[in-house]
């Protein structure tokens, strides 16, 4: 016994409803000989005679009536499956769940989301903010459709794409001795000085530790560990000690004199900002659109003349 295909079941149900193989074939937009062959294949596969073919039309046998009843239930369930899948697809296309590291969430994502919402005003966007270490977990567990991280290291294998570049800067308050330095700091001086730092697992902390390691130095020494960029900025402005922060986060403070940038020699503090999603999953829909917005230059993202 072979499992019948759905179109053959649909043909059998139409023969039962219309009382004619020819009209059933016409409804399915196939030729009558093709319909006859399909019905014969169904009968051979089930080992049953399903239709009596006469000059006055086609009539289902008793076995055909029973099989047609079952076929009708199968087709009804299939219709429900397809309708349910369509609802899920429509709902998925109307919402986007994003996980992002703190710096990206605070200083870049608002503009990206605004641009995407301008194109798709019906789109609901939910954002979870955490450190770079935890973003991949949220994406892999399907709690988020797309993630954005700033750290150089991924704890698990994931598909990634660079969306932007950032630079870390050493900052102090104007009263700090480093604010009056004429010579750049060395990598060793930076690594030996206790700093106001983000928590372990943050992208900023990962980038700094990796840069010092590549420069042949020990990891950064924490004076204070804080859970947000805003808290670190506030502590440095208050004179707690020096720190290393994203240029995105301190640009205004540097321009207005609340903080002073200190040059460092021999340490590369640039970093890639990346989108992440599970390996093997194709990036489609609103998630793919958000990544495309993030990858465009800032002036292009706000240019209404561009598609």
UniProtKB/TrEMBL annotation:
It holds the Pfam family HTH_1. SUPFAM superfamilies: Periplasmic binding protein-like II, Winged helix' DNA-binding domain. PROSITE patterns: HTH_LYSR. Gene3D superfamilies: Periplasmic binding protein-like II, Winged helix-like DNA-binding domain superfamily/Winged helix DNA-binding domain. Residues 4-61 form the HTH lysR-type domain. One of its GO terms (molecular function) is transcription cis-regulatory region binding. It comes from the Bacteria. Keywords: DNA-binding, Transcription, Transcription regulation. Transmembrane segments: none annotated. InterPro entries: LysR_HTH_N (IPR000847), LysR_subst-bd (IPR005119), WH-like_DNA-bd_sf (IPR036388), WH_DNA-bd_sf (IPR036390). Belongs to the LysR transcriptional regulatory family. This is LysR family transcriptional regulator. It comes from Streptomyces mexicanus. The lineage of its organism: Bacteria, Bacillati, Actinomycetota, Actinomycetes, Kitasatosporales.
């Amino acid at each position: 016994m072979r499992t019948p295909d759905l179109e053959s079941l649909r043909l059998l149900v139409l023969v039962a409803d219309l009382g004619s193989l020819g009209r059933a074939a016409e409804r399915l937009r196939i030729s009558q000989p093709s319909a006859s062959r399909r019905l014969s294949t169904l009968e051979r596969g089930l080992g049953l005679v399903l239709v009596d073919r006469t000059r006055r039309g086609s009539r289902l046998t008793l076995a055909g009536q029973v099989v047609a009843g079952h076929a009708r239930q199968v087709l009804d369930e299939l219709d429900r499956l397809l309708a349910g899948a369509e609802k899920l697809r429509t709902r998925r296309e109307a919402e986007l769940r994003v996980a992002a590291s703190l710096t990206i969430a605070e200083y870049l994502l608002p503009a990206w989301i605004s641009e995407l919402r301008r194109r798709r005003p019906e789109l609901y966007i939910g954002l979870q903010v955490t450190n770079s270490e935890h973003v991949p977990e949220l994406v892999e567990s399907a709690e988020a459709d797309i993630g954005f991280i700033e750290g150089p290291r991924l704890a698990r294998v994931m598909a990634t794409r660079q969306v932007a570049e950032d630079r870390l800067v050493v900052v102090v308050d104007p009263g700090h001795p480093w604010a009056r330095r004429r010579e750049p700091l060395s990598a060793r001086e930076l690594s030996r000085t206790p700093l106001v730092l983000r928590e372990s697992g943050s992208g900023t902390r990962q980038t700094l530790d990796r840069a010092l390691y590549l420069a042949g130095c020990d990891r950064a020494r924490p004076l204070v560990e804080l859970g947000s960029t805003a808290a670190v900025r506030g502590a440095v402005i208050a004179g707690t000690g020096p720190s290393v922060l994203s240029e995105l986060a301190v640009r205004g403070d540097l321009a207005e004199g609340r903080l002073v940038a200190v040059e460092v020699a021999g340490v590369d503090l640039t970093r890639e900002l990346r989108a992440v999603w599970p390996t093997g999953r194709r990036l489609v829909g609103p998630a793919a659109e958000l990544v495309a917005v993030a990858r465009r230059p800032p002036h292009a993202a706000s240019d209404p003349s561009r598609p």
